Amino acid sequence: MKTIGYAAQSATSKLAPFHFERRAPRATDVAIEILYCGVCHSDLHAARNDWGGSVYPCVPGHEIVGRVTAIGADVTRHAVGDHVAVGCLVDSCLQCDQCHHDEEQYCRHGYTGTYNSPDRINGENTLGGYARHIVVREAFVLRLDNRLDLARTGPLLCAGITSYSPLRRWNAGPGSRIGVAGLGGLGHMAVKLAAAMGAHVTVLSRTADKLADALALGADELLVSGDTEAMAKAANRFDLIIDTVPVKHDINPYLPLLDIDGTLVIVGQVGTLPEPSTVPMIFGRRRIAGSLIGGIAETQEMLDFCARKNIHPDVEMIRMDQINEAFERMERADVRYRFVIDMASLPAPQAG
Prior knowledge:
Distance between the termini: 11 Å
Number of helices: 10
CATH superfamily of the largest domain: Medium-chain alcohol dehydrogenases, catalytic domain
Order of helices and strands: EEEHEEEHEEEHHEHEHEHEEHEHEHE
Number of domains: 2
Radius of gyration: 20 Å
Oligomer: single chain
């Protein structure tokens, strides 16, 4: 299947139009016309090889919403014409204990990412959702409730599930006291989801200027992390803090905010942190943990929850040819809170 997308050809090149061929659907595959694709900070990191290991050409994009155009002979879950979604995973071994526990993101043999990952069968590098079409194994294609707005659903496939999974894992709900550090793409979803679960939600921010935004998203209050007196008064306040800050930062000021058996979950920064103090951990039985997206079953659960609760990310729609500008704005935190690409802005693939 001939298609067109936008690709980085090197770590220093801008994304530009790229014509390429998708594989023919295998017996268990679903072919999808992509309608919308969210823009994640991971896309920028992969295009620029910030984490190492990027393979070029690199077509990013793992927040995909589209329409089924063809199915393999053995496909039973989806039909031509269905609206579907694809997130960060397009395959795993499906045989190990983690896959059997519906946690394909922790597959013992390594999951196959939607882009920049070797295909499990032919070894070719996967190319992501900044394109008109994609072909994905049926088990990794998610159904979409018709109550979801297709144009705003894409970021749920990464920002949504990355926030939802730790909230579920640490039993957020009525009576829970949840802190959210950072109010970007991940943080604004954590606030919306935690509030919808019935938790008392506090945004942790360096300054008070995000108070109105935090309250509008569903938070109950804002705690200024730069206010030493306010932070001291907030000791032992939280059962769970979701740390969505995407850059290297000091987590030590957050640890005393946790109650006994409280947990700080890092979902935003991939890399090293300044050395944490063990004092509040030992004397309060507090924990530092991490969490990576969610499995397919949990992602489906999250999508269905958002449909029931009418939860959508706040997004700004862009054309495909605005992606390099969007990357630059994302680096400046100049987006509220997620970009989504309208794939109708891509030209048709070349014939022949």
